[in-house]
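Entry for phosphoenolpyruvate complex. Fields follow.
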Amino acid sequence: MVSYKLALRKKGQETTKIKVGNAVFGENLVIIAGPCAVESEQQYLDSAKQAKEAGADILRGGAFKPRTSPYSFQGVGEGGLKIIKKARETLSIPAVTECTDAPQVDIIMEHADIIQIGARNSRNYELLRQVGKKTAKNKFPVLLKRGDSSTMEEFLNSAEYILKEGNPNVILCLRGIRTFESQMRNTPDVGAIPWLKKETHLPVIFDPSHSSGTSEFIAELCFAAVAAGADGLIIESHCNPEKALCDGQQSLKKERLKQVIDKAGEIKRAISLLPPQHF
Ligand code: PEP
Ligand code: MN
């Protein structure tokens, strides 16, 4: 018997549907796009507008950035949340942003529509417990990324920490894992999609940007993920990737983003003709 009893898909159990704005995770292919980080009001508003015009359902962008080096750009902090709120209200589109510490939860819930727990914090069990507790009352959606060295069992147990506190609205996100291979930033874990879709009722989305670390392969990885059954994609995009303070090399410009989103939708429609065996 597995320990993640709430995340486990029981026989015949439907995929959990999580409605955010007009998008429904677990029902439609949900596209999240936007820059890695909020850098300034102009940069975020321009990038957000372009992401929406390209077809994104939800915006992304971090105000609090968990960076590997303490000397890298650390995010603009709380002021970034106000910028995200302005973008989502001006453009009428929801937004997801990362929480790196439990005291941020309340203010994030006032400024965004989904709380992200990043790969680095996905095994910070106290944070997961606190996020679960603070979001349980309004069942505020949580997007949980897989740790870069988490097994799928560990990943589902991380989700279980949030579910156990009473919030059923957890979206799982694959973002590549660390292996012996070093040609890409991470090893894209698209193969985990059908396994997770069978094992859990939670929606599963894929992040091609952090998986590969390069904008060059985002299209192919998005198509592979959708063909493998992903419920959504989270793609980094930027109004001026060359000038980005964070992850510009793995961010798409508007034109390419639109092409990727359009083709991903076609693939989703094509595979819906042959539903997975376990449904
Ligand atoms: C991010 O989405 O901005 C991010 C930091 O990703 P990850 O946690 O997957 O590294
Ligand atoms: Mn990033």
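NOTE: The chain has a mean pLDDT of 97.
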